[in-house]
């Protein structure tokens, strides 16, 4: 289950500042970048952090037999309904899906809460620990 920014209502601008971002070969600390088997199913520089971009995960996850639910709503009944069967929740630091003790209690299959960026202040850490849910973030991906 992934909570992402909604796509811009007026469409994406024709040019982004990211169009001139250099290609990364390693993290700033020297650590190697992930190299998914079979490559990636998006063009470098493509917007992945919104609904239509799906973090570039759909093809990879579905090839592994998983389903991917992506929604912009993160605070209401639709999210809560999907959370009941979710094993993993991914949200963004500036568009967080709050994983409260109440939500954890209603999500018996939940194994992991991931922030696509840094920070975990939107997850009830004590509740996650008690339920055996791992909480993690993706450094260098904000």
Strand content: 5-15%
Element order, helices and strands? EHEHEHEHE
**Largest beta-sheet characterization:** 3 strands, parallel
* Spans where pLDDT lies below 50 across 5 or more residues: none
- Main-sheet strand order equals 3-4-5
Structural class designation: alpha/beta
User: What is the number of beta strands?
Assistant: 5
Our count of helices gives 4
Distance between the termini: 19 Å
Rg: 16 Å
Structural commentary:
The model has no long low-confidence stretch (mean pLDDT 84). This protein has helices at 58-63, 77-83, 101-105, 125-131; strands spanning 2-3, 70-71, 88-91, 112-115, 134-137. The chain is 18% helix and 11% strand. The longest helix is centred in the middle third of the chain and has 7 residues, at 77-83. It is α/β, with parallel strands linked by helices. It has a 3-stranded parallel β-sheet, with helices on one face. Strands 1-2 form a two-stranded parallel ribbon. Helix 1 (58-63) links the parallel strand 1 (2-3) and strand 2 (70-71).
In short:
The chain has about 140 residues and is an alpha/beta fold.
Task: Compile the SSE list and pairings.
Layout: E1 2-3, H1 58-63, E2 70-71, H2 77-83, E3 88-91, H3 101-105, E4 112-115, H4 125-131, E5 134-137
Parallel strand pairs: 1-2, 3-4, 4-5
Descriptive key words:
142 residues, alpha/beta, three-stranded parallel β-sheet, two-stranded parallel ribbon, 11% strand
């Amino acid at each position: 289950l992934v909570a992402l920014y909604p796509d811009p209502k007026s469409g994406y601008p024709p040019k982004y500042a990211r169009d001139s971002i250099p290609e990364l070969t390693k993290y700033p600390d020297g650590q190697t970048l992930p190299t998914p088997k079979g490559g990636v199913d998006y063009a470098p520089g493509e917007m992945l952090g919104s609904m239509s971009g799906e973090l570039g995960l759909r093809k990879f996850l579905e090839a592994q037999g998983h389903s991917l639910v992506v929604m912009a709503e993160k605070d209401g009944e639709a999210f809560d309904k999907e959370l009941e069967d979710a094993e993993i929740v991914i949200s963004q630091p500036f568009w967080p899906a709050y994983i409260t003790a109440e939500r954890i209690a209603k999500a018996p299959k939940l194994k992991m809460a991931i922030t696509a960026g840094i920070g975990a202040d939107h997850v009830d850490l004590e509740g996650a620990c008690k339920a055996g849910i791992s909480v993690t973030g993706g450094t260098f991906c904000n």
